[in-house]
Specification:
The chain is an alpha+beta fold. It has two domains: 6-149 and 339-355, Aminopeptidase, CATH 3.40.630; 159-330, Gcn5-related N-acetyltransferase (GNAT) (Aminopeptidase), CATH 3.40.630. 35% of the residues lie in helices and 29% in strands. The longest helix is centred in the middle third of the chain and has 15 residues, at 206-220.
Length: 356
Amino acid sequence: MSVSVIATQETLPPLDALEARWRALEAASDGSFFTSWTWMGAWLRATGAQPDLVSVCDVEGAEIGLALFGLGREPRKLGAQSTLRLNESGDPQADRVFIEYNAPLAARDREGDVTAAIAALLSKRRDWRVLRLSGVADDCALVAAVPARRRILVDVSPAYGVALGAVREAVGDYLSLLTSNTRSQIRRALKDHGDGAIDVQRASSVGEIAAWLAEMHRLNADHHEDNAWDSPMFRAFAAEISQAGLASGAVDVLRITIGGDVTGYLLNFVHGDRAMNYQCAFAEPVSAKDKPGLITHVAAVACYAGRGLALYSLLAGKDRYKQSLATGAEELQWWRLERFSPGLEAEYWLRRLLNS
């Protein structure tokens, strides 16, 4: 890191001022959708989260890095610990939007300088004992750069996806890339819908977005033990980000039908050469062999392959259906970096003793 690159911390500025700064840096970066203003702005507006802002500037005062850090008290076995979170708030309700491909936003070719500057700033702060890095890539440089007593890999998740170039090379025959069992399940399900044409529609107005998200909420009711759609804050975020990405095409709210009958809805992100399925909701099966979820995703694959994109990502998750539909996977990680504290040290050795 150049000595002239410095990270500074500030309270969260008004969102209109932050948007201008964030979008300017975003245009000069290779960040993910989850570090774009479409995501960050929607998250901040919908949740009211108030993380601190960390800015990295070069010797000429140009901003080359931005990141948000939320600080809170996280319950632990031997007492709550001050916990810092990258691009999260520390409030479980605000953070259940579940960030992925997480990282500081950095100017192109300056990622190393930004990482080093942020690590230096964090090493000087005395207000945290634990740093959470959620949904980061498997080569996230912050993991090693931030001084810590121990680095704990909390979770690893595949991010399954479909290589759309391979679908185009197969002349649109996506099913030929899947296992024989998955192919047969999808073909049997399609037979139950007769000769109806599959149609993929994109919500084109705020009114359609509201109606289709309401249907997603209804269809997801009572389907999951910990259902994000039950949270008013999550529903507000889904509406906010869908509207924020409507005009630019960064967010697609899709409705998939067969012969006019709805099989499912998808809330997808589009960034660079990839589409990403963030949320889904499916109609009730019309028969014992019907697979509305598989049919819905097959339709989306065909849609995005036709648009010339490179990847249809199912994002993080170990669900069997994601593995069945995928032609490959990336890896995302969740890390906990701990400084020394008597409570954390006692907890660590107690865990080792009990597991020995």
